[in-house]
Write a structure and sequence with these properties.
Elements: H1 9-14, E1 18-20, E2 30-35, E3 63-67, E4 86-87, E5 95-97, H2 98-118, E6 126-131, H3 133-149, E7 153-157, H4 171-180, E8 189-194, H5 203-209, H6 213-216, E9 220-225
Parallel strand pairs: 2-3, 2-6, 6-7, 7-8, 8-9
Antiparallel strand pairs: 1-3, 4-5
Helix pairs in contact: 2-3, 3-4
Length: 231
């Protein structure tokens, strides 16, 4: 992991966080924190042409979007790209370096609380989400933080529901607490999952991670898509 303080200026400028504020003259009504996938960056989620609500000004009225960029830990195969944790190997989505996941958990916890202060402590106006690896990590944080903060919901794409067995220690108990809560279990948790992804987050893996979850979380809405791959 390269400390940002010793990074060349051009790298520090490249791997910045991004955010979208409500249009001028529009009140801040809600916030979405959304995590990118492995190898990407927060600013990549601002590219024109993406079918995302914060790219379309009309759809994003009142919405503040926070798009953090992950650090670049060295993966077991030697690659250093933005990643929310160090993998166990190149073929699976399991955590190999627990310290990198804990660092992301701590960062996201602090970010949630900072955004909650902007919303005057009204938790149901604060949403969390992500895509690919970012979806899995964001969903881990959602399960761990939703009850305490009263989070309003989750939206994810091409990800999975993490489990202790994947290296996300403690998330199974966190999920069980959310599933027992009469209010939080009904809050929207929307997932768009590609059934033709056989490489990055394989459908077989994603489907297995959600086994039984829909019965426990009435707010869980799973939408399947195909002919688009891992997008």
């Amino acid at each position: 992991l390269i400390p940002r303080a010793v990074e060349p200026a051009f790298l520090a400028a490249h791997y910045v966080d991004a955010e979208v504020c409500p249009p001028s003259g529009t009140a801040h009504r809600r916030t979405l924190i959304y995590l990118h996938g492995f190898g990407s960056r927060g600013p990549n989620l601002l590219r024109a042409g993406l079918a995302l609500p914060w790219v379309d000004g009309e759809a994003s009225a009142g919405l503040r979007v926070v798009l953090p960029t992950a650090p670049r830990p060295c993966q077991p195969w030697g690659e250093m790209k933005p990643s929310w944790y160090g993998y166990s190997n190149k073929k699976e989505n399991s955590v190999g370096d627990a310290s990198t996941l804990e660092a992301s958990r701590a960062r996201l916890s602090a970010l949630l609380r900072a955004e909650l202060r902007r919303l005057n402590g009204v938790g149901h106006l604060l949403l969390l989400g992500g895509t690919s690896q970012g979806c899995g990590v964001a969903l881990d944080t959602y399960m761990r933080e939703a009850l305490e903060l009263g989070l309003g919901g989750f939206v994810g794409c091409a990800g999975w529901l993490p489990h202790d067995a994947d290296g996300f220690d403690g998330v199974d108990k966190a999920f069980a607490r959310v599933a027992r809560d009469g209010r939080q279990r009904k809050r929207p948790l929307w997932l768009l999952l590609p059934t033709d992804d056989t490489k990055h987050v394989p459908w077989k893996f994603a489907r297995a991670s959600l086994r039984g979850a829909q019965k426990q979380l009435p707010g869980l809405l799973l939408r399947k898509t195909c002919r688009r791959g891992h997008q």
